[in-house]
Each structure stands twice: as structure tokens, then as C-alpha cells.
Amino acid sequence: MVWLVAMPSRQSSLYGLAAHGLWLLGLVLLMDASARPANHSSTRERAANKEENEILPPDHLNGVKLEMDGHLNKDFHQEVFLGKDMDGFDEDSEPRRSRRKLMVIFSKVDVNTDRRISAKEMQHWIMEKTAEHFQEAVKENKLHFGAVDPDGDGYVSWDEYKVKFLASKGHNEREIADAIRNHEELKVDEETQEVLENLKGRWYQADNPPADLLLTEEEFLSFLHPEHSRGMLKFMVKEIVRDLDQDGDKQLSLPEFISLPVGTVENQQGQDIDDNWVKDRRKEFEELIDSNHDGIVTMEELENYMDPMNEYNALNEAKQMIAIADENQNHHLEPEEILKYSEFFTGSKLMDYARNVHEEF
């Protein structure tokens, strides 16, 4: 499940190449990062809310193409290029240091040291960075499991989890525990009750046979991170199809995948953003998800598309990422190209103005 590729370091040789290529760069092509207004928060905002929701299955899963509710993961390309080093290229980073760091990454991806990145090299890198996200999830799961396993017996019951979940929502933990122990009706609002029902369904799904509603640490990982389990990945796909499927045929048409809720657009600016959102979803549907191009996405196609361990998908992503910056059309990624299109790969525009070139030297 974990892919590790030996990446020899040639940091010093690439610095020279980067320096030679920088003078060629002009104005950066702005990469449109627009997303639907109703879409999810940025990486930084998600990190700020992480502690509050640490025992709640996250909507966002690093290195997975779709959010849990079916939105496109707008940070996907950066996640599978940077791995756990996402924070190293935030807006506050010093541009020169970030450019050098990007060239170090380039040297690691470029396994055969020919000063250009092939689709195969990018594929191996994507799989390695995805593995990093998996390892991070396992590490975090150990902490979260300990938080919901108060007696330390290595198992978490549904009732134990429910107490901790409701306590995280502001309820008195002792009162909730007493009510559950005495089989009393819990006084929670309708929305919280609906969330609990959905969570219980997921809890059942993560509970490997024989089903006992007790989750081990490994099963709890599947509960929080369904991408770690084939069965839970199928369950996540079913939930997404259920939410987007309008005619009840348990598959998705293009109109269903790109449809916008009534009242989403309030002004022209919102219309422009939504137009970009629809365009992105249409492209993803037609070029990547609908593998047989019949205009319909089945659960199997959606599962293959979302599976972060799918090597064929990783190769497709590698080709797509290279094509974004491949200005000389040689089907490879070269240092000056990755610097010029840094916003796509890192989320930060590292070559804002021509004067940056002079500052670099």
C-alpha cells in the first residue's frame, strides 16, 4: 500500500540549471484557482479547524480527487506534488528560498538526472507523496483513537465515540454519558441527530466482521479515512453518488455532476466563478472520470477515479500536470517551466515580476 522510490539528490547541479533558466522567464501565466463559492475552505482554514473536528471524519482527504461531498479537491495537484511539505510554500514564504526549495524537489523527481521530468518519473513521485499523506493519517489516527478510547482497552464502542463527538459539539460529557448508560433519549437538535445517523452508518461499515460495533485502531482509521480501505472507499462513492444522483439510477450523468443548486449565483462575479467551477467539473468528468466516454459515470468508474492507490490514475495525473507547464511540447517538465508555473505545483507564484530575476542574481 505504500510506495517508496529512491530519489538521489542532485541539488547542487540543479541550482546551476535553474539560475541559467531564470533569465528566460517573463511574466507568469496566472493559474486560475477559482472555485465554486459553496466549496470548501482553503488548506489554511482547514488546518485552523482541525483540532475542533479531530474525531469527526474529515470532509477533505489529502491526495484524494474528490471531497467527501463530491466537490473537486482544488488542492489535489499541490498535495500530490508536495506531500507533507505543503506548508513550505505558503504566501508568507520568502520567494527566493521557495524557488530554491522547488528546484530541490525537481532534482528528487528527476531520477535519471537528465534535467527534465518524464511522466513516469512524475507518476512515481505522485505515488510516493500520496504514501506520505497516508502515513500522516495513520500517525494522526493513533492520537485521535487514544482520545476516544478512555479506558485504553484497544477498542472504541459506538457509545464511547458518541459521547466524545457530542462533547466536541458543546454538550456536557458526563450528562451525555449518563443518559446513554441509562438508555435515556438524548436531547440534541435535528441537524446533530442527522449527523449521528450518518456517522453510525459509517461506523457499521468500518466495523469488520464479526460486527460488534467495537472499532479497533485500524478500523477507526477506516472510519476517519476511507481511502485506506477498499470497502470504505466503496461506501464513500455510494454516498457521493447518492448526494449527486437526481434520477435515482445510482450513476451520474454529466448534468448531474455539474449541476448548481438554485440560488447559488447572486451576481456577475458569482456567475463567473460558477462558470469556472462548471468548466472544471465538466473537464474532469469527460476526460478522467468517464473512462469509457459513454456520458455516464458508474460507481466503479468513480471508485477507480478516487482510488489514490491506482497507478494508472497516477500516470494520467502525471501527464496532465506536465501538460500544464510543457511550453516546448516535449512531453517533459524542465526547471524553467516548473518555476514559471509554480502556482500550479505549489500554490504560490514564485516569479511575480521580472525584477525577481535580478534579485536572484
From TrEMBL:
Domain EF-hand per the UniProt entry, residue ranges: 97-132, 136-171, 232-267, 277-312
Metal-binding keyword on record: yes
Record's GO cellular component terms: endoplasmic reticulum; Golgi lumen; late endosome
A GO term, aspect molecular function: calcium ion binding
Keyword Secreted assigned: no
Signal peptide: 1-35
Gene3D superfamilies: EF-hand
Classification via CDD domains: EFh_CREC_cab45 (cd16225)
PROSITE patterns named in the record: EF_HAND_1 (PS00018), EF_HAND_2 (PS50222)
Protein family per UniProt: Belongs to the CREC family.
Protein name: 45 kDa calcium-binding protein
Organism whose genome encodes this protein: Cricetulus griseus (Chinese hamster)
Gene responsible for this protein: Sdf4
